[in-house]
Write the structure tokens for this entry.
Amino acid sequence: MPSSHVCTSPWWLPGGHAQTIWPSITGSCYLPKTQWMRQRWTTPDNDFVDADWQWHHEADAPTVVLFHGLEGSSSSHYAHALAAAVQARGWNLVVPHFRGCSGELNHAPRAYHSGDYEEIDWMLQQVRSRVYGPILGIGVSLGGNALLRWAQECSTSPLLHAVVALCAPLDLTAASHQLAHGVNRWIYTRHFLRTMVPKGLRKALQFPGLLNEQQLNSARDLRDFDAAFTAPLHGFSSAAQYWVVCSAGRYMRRIQHAALVVNTANDPLVPVSSLPAPAEVPTHVAMWRPLTGGHVGFSDPRWPAQMQGVATAIMEWLKQHV
């Protein structure tokens, strides 16, 4: 499917904000309910990762590994939309939750971040130990950037046949700046911080002295939060250093896997000006830039305007690389 036809949003959802918000708040009403089977994996640092599976019951069927976005989970609207598309093809799907996102406080003094490719590599190894067929990766938003960082740092790894990144913030500095101003700050930043700050405070209580609780409690944007939580918890000197080191857009030429990167032109969270130019991307990395779709909205033109169309298009692209 040509990139220009990946998403044609309905006339009654004008603009990136409407196209972002509508699917996220209505997906649970209109998308098929996925029956997940949960597994708990024990990590090398004696923590846990919860993985939700949708099995097709064929040992050699391809398996799609979905890495969710910031504060996402297997309950996110895009997880249900992709699950329906994967099931229709007869493949398996697994959603490994980043630490702290499966509904339970994790044990170790760490969480997750946009460049956590080492955690993704470990998750993929767990999937490989449980399935026989080809494995394909899809990352959404934060998970898309982290998955691309995996492809860049583990470029010769045979764990994945292909990778897909949906609405990934490839320049974290630009995306964080976008979220710190105007309507984005009041809608999206407040939405994220509503769960991130309480989780951070619980982690501070779990490990006294590890974090600055006052600084964390006063966080008003992602720079504040990353400076108080993400950076010190994961070994970065500052939020700015974290953003620079972990932005996948800086390392696109390192990718050797077959890859598809989808970013809409009207994404309110990811400015199109921050995306790599075609000359900065290898020819085996496909870049789809639909004009509409918002941030992980991709509303179909017909009611109920969910994202089955783009999910089907992604599955067709992945089919070529199995």
